[in-house]
Amino acid sequence: MTETMDKSQTPVVVRIENLVKSFGDLEVLKGVDLEVHRGEVVVVLGPSGSGKSTMLRCINLLEKPTAGRIFFEDQEITAPKTDVNKVREHIGMVFQSFNLFPHLSAKKNVMLAQVKVLKRSKEEAERVAIAQLERVGLGDRLDYLPSQLSGGQQQRVAIARALAMDPHVMLFDEATSALDPELVRGVLDVMREMARAGMTMIVVTHEMGFARDVADRVIFMDGGYIVEQGTPQEIFDHPQNERTKDFLGHIS
Amino acid sequence: MKKSDRAQRATAANERLTLRDILPKAFSLMLAFALMAPCLAGAITVDNTTARPTQTTVGNSVYAGDPTRVTWECVVGENEEVSSIFLQYPEGTVFSNESYARLTALDGLDRLEVDAVDPIMADGTVRIEFKTPLAPGTRLRVEMYFVALPAPAGGVVITGSYTTRSGAVQDLPASPAIEVVGKSSADAMVAWLDEQPWVEKWNSVPFLRTFFKPQLIVASFPSLFKGWLRAMALVLIGFPLAIPLGLVLALLKIGKFKLTKGLASLYVNVVRGTPLFLQIYIAFFGLPLMGITANNYVVGVIVLAMNSSAYLCEIFRAGIQSIHKGQFEAAASLGMNGAQTMFNVIIPQTVRRVIPTMTSEFILLYKDTSLLSAVGVMELMMFGKSLVANTGNITPYIVAACYYLLVTLPLIKLVNVLEARLSGTDGGSGGKTKAKKARKSGKKLLSAISPVPLPGDANVAQDAAQATAEPEVAAPAVWRPDAEPDLSLTDAGHEMS
């Protein structure tokens, strides 16, 4: 995999060191280390409760780590005086439940943060919004309200909304899990296209096909640890860890 | 003839002037007086005119065309004696066969005998000749009985002239105006009802007469209209003032700062934990004791607004907290700060959700304006109260109830439609048919509110509604910015299951 080799030489976008996260007495992450390079697509697999989503949410500080450090492009964002909003500007996130703003049209959903956070002019924000919505195949749905769109379309609007902020990394938190099977493909196609375009992506998913096709690296998490990682071929075809084997055995 | 006349009058009203044999008129007494009288200061003054309210209808008004008693008073100037008075009532004044005049003269508190010929009444004028001229400083009261007044613009003003002992004729100063109300169609209808046999029959039933007297229903509606306008003004000014106040309180309560949070909670709990009636008493009797005096309506509006803001605070708080936490997270993930999230994402969604409960609160506040009648603010209830006091009949209260219902019934209907629409909506992915159905029913009425289905659980809106219906029960906290670990725990738990 020459492509993978190339990407490991690019600068590190996200580095996680010994990340621990507890909710009360419950320790969900027990010490996670991870480096994600620019342009890399990392797919995180693992059973429910393994801590994948929590790890993802720690990266843009939706969860406050209990211990450990997270770096975003050489800046330690777990440092006490970090401007959290500033960091989040550059980290796009796509949620399982879309979380579109229901009172705003697709276009306005994509425009809002551009205008408020990036201080772009309305005209520029609109131009970017239209371009991003066209990119995700919704150029004809600009003025639709979220309620007038299918789940898959809503998720694509959510992706466009994140992309419009020019993120340096995109986090996908089970982006297709809430979708009807026939709508999953549209969203995955958009994600594939993003990967081809060189976007750095950390993807929590249960879509094994997507992981196999698109991932540069697959991470398998269980019990709050990363138990195994490698190329899709390594993980899917020759898993080393028993729990990985067990998990993949159940899935496929 | 004179004697019998006198006896007759005396029985009719014993205070009537007594007639005497004509005394020879002294002519030349003080020529100087006659010459000087016109230029003397302290000529006759007219200081009081009143008309007794007519009885045919409610209220304290004098109605045009109803026979009434009109009183006119003057004080003779210091340096003159008055030998005759000519009173001119406005055009349209009608004396009937029953009409008569009664004269009273007073010197200070002592009654004087009035020595005059019978007043001559014709065409709205009265001429009174005094056989003994009125002495300087005498107060003369002329009461005209059974006079039907017209209703000229500016009120009824009595003018005329008088003659001094010396024979000089002077104009009387114009009297203060008497307010006379023209007969309205309601009055005409009352008069018509008075003559209907079925009305008589209806009124012979004590219950119907006491609560639903037709004449009073007809007469009360126009009288109470003014009160209704004032009640509307109180709530239409008070409620919009309460909205920003309630929003600020809600944001403080949700916010992170312990001190402002505590103060807002204290305010809301104290206001919601005490009767509005008591708050009104404190404001209306307490402020004057502190030397603060303000217009009753201003104080009333302020008390209503302050009271309502506490309830609105809880409505807004429940509304904001009913917004799915994903909305906060999505905004945060885009780098939006708390204020940007609140004003661009959360509050616009909250507005739609809280409109039904806010409308309910508006209804409550509108009804609560009636409590201001306890401290004498003239509003709908107070107008009804005075009519009830005047008539000894409950019907005006029933009419007042109609005025309250006039506003509350359509609003209650509106709340029902809004709530049906809200509970029919669902998150973006599901519940579409329900949303569409609800939209269909609500759209016509609610073109002002764009038909956007709401995210999250449909029950949250219901929860918000219940939070107002039973203020003690707090709405479930869906999102608490100061308690993130809790939320995440639920999230993690969800993921584990």
Structure write-up:
The complex is a heterodimer of chains A (252) and B (497). Chain A has 252 residues and is an alpha/beta fold. Chain A contains 10 helices and 10 strands. In chain A, the strands form 2 sheets. In chain A, strands 6-7-8-3-9-10 form a 6-stranded mixed β-sheet, sandwiched between helices. Mean pLDDT of chain A is 92; it is low at 1-5. In chain B, the strands form 3 sheets. Chain B has a 5-stranded antiparallel β-sheet with strand order 1-3-9-5-6, with no helix packed on it. A 5-stranded antiparallel β-sheet of chain B has the order 7-8-4-10-11, with no helix packed on it. In chain B, strands 2-12 form a two-stranded parallel ribbon. With 497 residues, chain B is of the alpha+beta class. In chain B, helix 12 (380-391) packs antiparallel against helix 13 (395-423). Chain B has helices at 2-12, 31-36, 185-194, 197-203, 206-212, 214-254, 258-273, 276-289, 296-321, 325-333, 338-368, 380-391, 395-423, 432-443, 458-469, 484-496, and strands at residues 45-51, 62-63, 67-75, 82-88, 94-107, 110-112, 120-122, 125-134, 139-148, 159-164, 169-171, 180-181. In chain B, strand 7 (120-122) and strand 8 (125-134) form a beta hairpin. In chain B, 52% of the residues lie in helices and 15% in strands.
